[in-house]
Design brief:
The protein has helices at 11-15, 35-40, 48-52, 148-155, 189-194; strands at 8-9, 18-19, 22-27, 30-33, 62-63, 68-69, 71-73, 80-82, 116-120, 124-131, 137-143, 165-169, 172-173, 205-210. It is α+β, with helices and mostly antiparallel strands and 217 residues long.
């Protein structure tokens, strides 16, 4: 298994980055680290809406079809303008022409891929990882799109030798290149919801069997 950065993030993970020096947001399925933008414009009043949105999903700021900021017809000018009820923010032009408005910044931050750090999970799942050697059990929140290798990476803080184990569900070896669903570990949240039951009462368990080596990442 090669070292690689995470591709998917849970909303909980995004919400952990909610400070001016460490500021993430998510929108339209993307996760972006706006910390460099905040540092570059430190002290600018136009940062306020971004600072207030730290760690949150701001998809409602955008038109999902154009993937640009929402627009409306400005009642003062009759022109189509960006719609920012949360307040004008960095790279949004002023309502009326101004001599101090510099538009030579290139791409606005929401179109600049350099801020993107990953993908927001479309859904999260809880799984129990049970080490049959030590009998330790940990519950992880994972992204439904993640492969078993990516779930293993999430488990490493609990067991640095996690790759030295065979991972099984219902007695069947798991394909580490596939997701939980592809490994026939069903997501039954909808069924539990239909039955008015707490899905957390049943969390699928993955059993780890030691392979007698000490692979460490």
């Amino acid at each position: 298994m090669e070292q690689f950065p995470p591709r998917y993030f849970t909303p909980r993970e995004v919400s952990a980055h909610a400070r001016p020096g460490d500021l993430w947001v998510s929108y339209l399925g993307r996760v972006c680290d706006l910390s460099p933008l905040v540092r570059r414009h430190k002290g600018d009043v136009l940062l306020r809406p971004i600072l207030e949105a730290a760690g949150k999903d701001i998809s409602h700021w955008f038109n999902p079809k154009t993937r640009d900021i929402q627009t409306h017809v400005d009642p003062l000018t009759g022109c189509v303008k960006y719609y920012t009820p949360q307040g004008r923010f960095i790279h949004i032009p002023p309502q009326l022409p101004r001599s101090d408005w510099a538009n030579d910044f290139g791409l606005p931050w929401w179109k600049d891929s350099k801020y993107e750090v990953g993908i927001l999970a479309s859904k999260t799942r809880r799984v129990r990882i049970i080490n049959t050697l030590t009998l330790q059990e940990h519950v992880l929140e994972v992204c439904a799109e993640e492969s078993m290798w990516e779930i293993l990476r999430r488990y490493l803080p609990h067991n640095a030798h996690a790759a030295s184990y065979t991972w099984k569900y219902n007695g069947v070896n798991l394909d580490m290149d596939k997701t939980l669903e592809q490994n026939k570990i069903p997501d039954e949240d909808a069924e539990f919801y239909r039955l008015n039951l707490d899905a957390d009462l049943y969390t699928p368990g993955i059993l780890l069997y030691f392979n007698d080596d000490l692979t460490e990442f």
